[in-house]
Design a protein that fits this description.
Layout (H helix, E strand, L loop, with lengths): L1 H19 L12 E6 L4 H17 L4 E6 L10 H12 L4 E5 L5 H14 L6 E7 L3 H11 L6 E5 L4 H12 L1 H9 L2
Length: 185
């Protein structure tokens, strides 16, 4: 009897230990909120976005899945989504997290998100997009051109980056060509 209990305990330990090192891509359940946190290569702006999402997680009673989107723009550093995952996982180890380490811009963020949504077996009840306040107009326009039948909510971090606001005018002019380029890959 003691040997059987010991064997069961060791087996449970091995299973739990081995699963702690596995990245699980969560199944989205009915009535599940998905928070899409868009990456940013500027660490200060990224921290603002992460902090905004952390505040949301700590104040909601609904179960959430995080979809962290952002690759490495130049391919030679750790992806933005991996950095965000590590930081969030330290504070909230039980939150379901899916990372998209491939996308390198807002269009790719939403193309990959749309593919992920299409692959889930259950409908998603709510999508909340977390980004910077200056980025909302462009992100919303791109999202609406790529993702069908979902009206997102927004979780915006506040930015005092003047050049960011100014640069958005240029980025807005490139939306159609950016989408065409991303979809042709």
């Amino acid at each position: 009897m003691f040997i059987n209990l010991l064997f069961d305990a060791v087996l449970c330990y091995i299973l739990l230990y081995s699963m702690s090192n596995v990245v699980l891509y969560p199944v989205v359940h009915l009535n599940n909120e998905v928070i899409v946190l868009l990456g940013c290569e500027n660490p200060r702006l990224q921290d603002q976005r992460i902090n905004s999402v952390l505040t949301y997680i700590e104040t909601t009673t609904s179960p959430v899945t995080l979809y962290l989107s952002g690759g490495s723009k130049y391919g030679n550093t750790e992806s933005e989504s991996s950095i965000m995952q590590r930081r969030i996982h330290k504070l909230h180890p039980n939150v379901n997290i899916y990372i998209d380490p491939e996308s390198k811009n807002t269009v790719e963020n939403f193309v990959n998100l749309n593919n992920w949504i299409q692959q889930t077996n259950n409908p998603i009840s709510k999508v909340i997009i977390a980004t910077s306040d200056f980025h909302k107009e462009r992100a919303e326009k791109i999202f609406n051109l790529i993702v069908d039948e979902i009206e997102p909510e927004w979780n915006l971090s506040t930015s005092n980056c003047d050049w960011c606001w100014d640069a958005e005018a240029t980025h807005m002019k490139n939306i159609q060509s950016d989408i065409k380029k991303a979809l042709s890959r």
